[in-house]
């Protein structure tokens, strides 16, 4: 009986088993050109049975029962794909080839890099993060770089100089100031796009880095799409047009691959008045496959450029002329001409060797050489008043500050009262009279050409009162690096990076244009009053003091720096933990060699002392997997960083003195994140705390009106009124802390909502010592080229340079027919100007006559005049849209972005406090005027901007 039941049961169950047959569903993912797409995420809706495509784009789902299914395919930089299919009574179901098309957003279109080219360095060397253009899967980083970075938002308030930007294995940071010059590969967006990014202070496989991200770019010729790609862009930003063409051969049967690209960006006038832009970019990549395990590449990148820059201005000037006003240009013979023109060409040659030693080990070796000149022009003058239209004595506010009945001289030499002069100047500024509001080049020529012929240092001719100079950086930079990887097991990897940089830069000033004169004197025009009895020569003992076009004048010196870094790392997984530990040991040697013998400084000429620094560091990342989609992530870093050359030397143009007590900066950075990553929800919530100490900052600017005293060898004092000065702060301590939230919710397969919140507090944590140096004084009474101003009371002041609160909310709709539209709202608050240290020192309140604080000065008075300079909050709307087509073998993409749709022109992107009145009485008097003479100078947002991009691949 039992046997009969067993047989009945067996034959009864067989049809049911067949009916519920389990099916394997598979497909291949390819791009528009038929190339496999690896590592795409394929999510089965309503199930946790999700997979990732392999190296040939293949994926499969196993054991699917009959029914109706939906899958969502996602891959960074590709459009999200939604597919539906049915499973019937079949063992295998082949979905065939699924094509994913590129989904370029506004950020991928080649966003114009906004940079501050003001040579006075009053902006504290703080740069925009737009240049990162990071292609990260992290939603917070993506929004911060692409949408907020356009408005000069810096994540966590961190200076970009503490990060790392690498191109083909070597660092692109300049050793003089730690910045990256994106002009060196400007316009080559299709070559340098989609880098690998290690965000903030998280460890990287390629270098130790700092605490503002490692951005790694590789340009292998074989990795670009085979064929041609043409791009045409229209915009109203720094440039108006961009045209590029790229061709890639793909890898031939003989193991050769070639990629070549050319680009041009240009504008007769950019969005800022009187600016132009003319830049080219060229790339050549050659790759030779020696064997399946060995490849050698050669890369050449060259990007010559010539463009003019725009000025900062006080609020008084913007009220007269609007936010697009630029004081650096004027008319010459009816044509626009700018005094601030930056041009350069510093090509890069690189060779890389990729060697897969065996199944577990690989070694990449890179060698790079870069050379060339970068020049920035500016107007200079001797023994005459500053010709800038925004010089304080040329503005209506100056005349308003005088006694209404005081006599003043008109521009034509006639006399008038200050009251009448104020009315005349105000009318000219309000009406936009170019003879007043812009540089008058014709007048400068007339003044020079009307000079009497005279004899100067053995030469006869007309001496220039006004002239143009170039500040030149002539660089030669060698880089070598290796990247070794050994996989002990599938879950344990050892990394070793070794790098060497040899930096050589001759920095000097040369005569650009004499504006109708015969020569200019290589002599301090203020020496007669500031340093009576001294030669005043910028280069004592030279045979020719009279300088003509192309001659060096003012200063000439060489920066040298050699640096070696060793960076071992270990990545491993154990249980629910993924761990990455990275260490660093570095040694640097820096020096300055003066080529001019300045009349004030004995250490100005010759090779100076070598300043050597050892640096060490440790980084760690721990990921705890709560489950497959929820994670806790900790990143920690503790390291020190040697000072850059411009922070090490107080005033390298004229002497070899270094900042007092300078040390390596110490960074202690920590963050903890909760991360969710599912097909329909991506989120990162992070808390961070970053402490820096031992930081040294140097600010250099020309000051007219600072009261100084020069003392000669006999003890005689001379009052100094105009000088090139330096402010030095040492042992600066800062704290950056806050919360970050990034959110991406897929409410429909085709519709995503995205948001960001950044709530920070970036403050000074101590009262650093402040020192002061001046070319007008030279050596102070202490025998040093600087003097102590005492403590600068900055503790608890907010750091400047970026909004400390930022919020963004937006959406993106991807239509299955390959078009998209998106938009977002951005809000910024708690943005401050960096506090000027000099007016917050003990010296500011000290009466020089009594040596005690000014009589009657109260704490309330000080708080009123020295309160933090907070900038207005603002919000912006951005929109973007695009459509792509595949026509046979051709691919066409049209996309457009409009930033600041509502044309908000009230947002201040940056600026600096002017340090002209260094004593309380004069500072308070100026502050209380209706129009402050030495008010802060700002850069404003440019208003509504657009970027339209057409791409054609064939």
UniProtKB/TrEMBL annotation:
The organism sits in which domain of life? Bacteria
Keyword Plastid set for record: no
Which UniProt keywords are listed? Answer: Cell outer membrane, Membrane, Signal
Q: Does the keyword Metal-binding apply?
A: no
Location in the cell: Cell outer membrane
Matches recorded under Pfam families: CarboxypepD_reg
What's in the GO CC field?
A: cell outer membrane
Which coarse location class describes where this protein primarily resides? membrane
Q: Where is the signal peptide?
A: 1-21
Task: State what protein this is by name.
Answer: Peptidase
Q: Which organism is it from?
A: Chryseobacterium phosphatilyticum
Lineage of source species: Bacteria, Pseudomonadati, Bacteroidota, Flavobacteriia, Flavobacteriales
